Amino acid sequence: FGIATDENFVITTTNRKEITEDNFSELVQDGVTLYLLQSVDQMLLLATKERIDFLPHYDTLVKSGMYEYYASEGQNPLPFALAELIDNSLSATSRNPGIRSIQIKLLFDDSQGKPAVAVIDNGSGMTSKQLNNWAVYRLSKFTRQGDFESDHSGYVRPLPVPRSLNSDISYFGVGGKQAVFFVGQSARMISKPAESQDVHELVLSKEDF
């Protein structure tokens, strides 16, 4: 790497966790992306890209964009799709010490790209690992277990309060990717974890699936 013998450096994960002798076996696994930095909090000189390779759950392939259950019940499926997307923001902001802000924007200006639905919140943010897992795993956030980092790490099922306040919408829902591809052809998630200086972005397209 061209590092001088008297130069200090650290190796970290994309979540800025320093690799040490104690956590090496836990953090360094096949396919993981690592940073070689002068310090843990060093600013990145330019954006880095990480390819996510995985075999999608068959339901992601077969059912993406389909809301046949709700349609068969005679209900308009669009509100369920939007509720699924808003649910992530409700969960992310549920422990905000201050104001919870969730905005829903419908973008139709062709000069800014294709029409889009944007859901913006001031929640805790997601790490790159959490974004990866949102793309890979098709599991309820209430049943996520195992040795991977959940996309709702530390999530506690809310107390019985009006469903519109507690992020319990998708307890019986159909999943974020299915909702995304019902509304459009691609998903772009941009997130900055509260404790990190890095901004993470995930792009998924129906064509890729």
TrEMBL record:
CDD domains: HATPase_SMCHD1-like. GO terms for biological process: double-strand break repair. InterPro entries: HATPase_C_sf, SMCHD1. The gene is Smchd1. It comes from Grallaria varia. SUPFAM superfamilies: ATPase domain of HSP90 chaperone/DNA topoisomerase II/histidine kinase. It comes from the Eukaryota. The lineage of its organism: Eukaryota, Metazoa, Chordata, Craniata, Vertebrata. This is SMHD1 protein. Signal peptide: none annotated.
